User: Fold these one by one.
Assistant:
Number 1:
Amino acid sequence: MQELYNWLVEYGWVLWLVLFLGFAAIETLTLDLFFAMLSAGALAAMLAAVLSAPLFLQVVVFCVVALLMIVLVRPAALKHLKAGSKDQRSNIERLIGDTAVTLEPVGSRTGTVKLAGDTWTARSGDGSLLPAGEQVAVTRIEGATAVVEPLRTSQTRSTDGHPDEDGSAKGRQ
């Protein structure tokens, strides 16, 4: 038993290095940032071992650093990781609000549109019949079907983006 203790005192940094790498490897599988925090604790304990700290102090350093990382750093890191995913829309969500062109008449049950360079099955969201060649807006995606509605222009704008005085669509010449 004394030999094991002597070995740990002399080569304790090897144990902490193995723990550091092991926790880092487990973190790559879980992606939960828990084992990364334990890995940071093992790295701090390895530094204490290299600086010839006694074994009990190395264990205390590991526990304190890992606990502080879990309590203080992990929640903030998880918050930042999850905040990015809310702000970024997925592939399908990105299509909502885009314009498409009807390739054939689109009704309440059938039709096709050209959306983002691809041909999609489509149906009218309000049940109206939309003729071929009309520009439509995608309101939602249901499975592999785009639900579309005719584009509505609330107020006609001139070429500079501002409404004309008379509200007409003509640009200023």
Note: The chain has a mean pLDDT of 83.
Number 2:
Amino acid sequence: MDLNGSEQDPEMKAYSAVWVGREDNIKKSERMTAVVHDREVVIFYHKGEYHAMDIRCYHSGGPLHLGDIEDFDGRSCIVCPWHKYKITLATGEGLYQSINPKDPSAKPKWCSKGVMQRIHTVTVDNGNIYVTLSNDSFKCNSDFYATGNFKVIKSSS
């Protein structure tokens, strides 16, 4: 992987893969945080798969790296520690339970709010973990908290 990006134009450089750590380390901790092109992300290792998303919850900016991972309706989700919002690791969909108020015997079922949390690509190469930011053009709710004054990772400078 070409990580120096010296001959890439600035637009494409923002979407180049960035090394974030070693596979051994994330497998032990099952999560890690990183700054990728000035965007804070959390990377999860869950059930043998890697997932990366914006570190702040789309709802109110909660720190997703501190949340628990639980399964809801067969989908692995990070649960925001602030307000218990459920976000699928694979797609970034917000999940909620719904019930038909006209049917008092109905059981609540899990429904999707749509993609609310921006998901990024994780690749593994020779034991190294890389994250490539999403370049999907749609506006995602988590974008608001992904930049600016909401940083949770302290810089070394």
Note: Residues 1-6 have pLDDT under 50 and may be disordered.
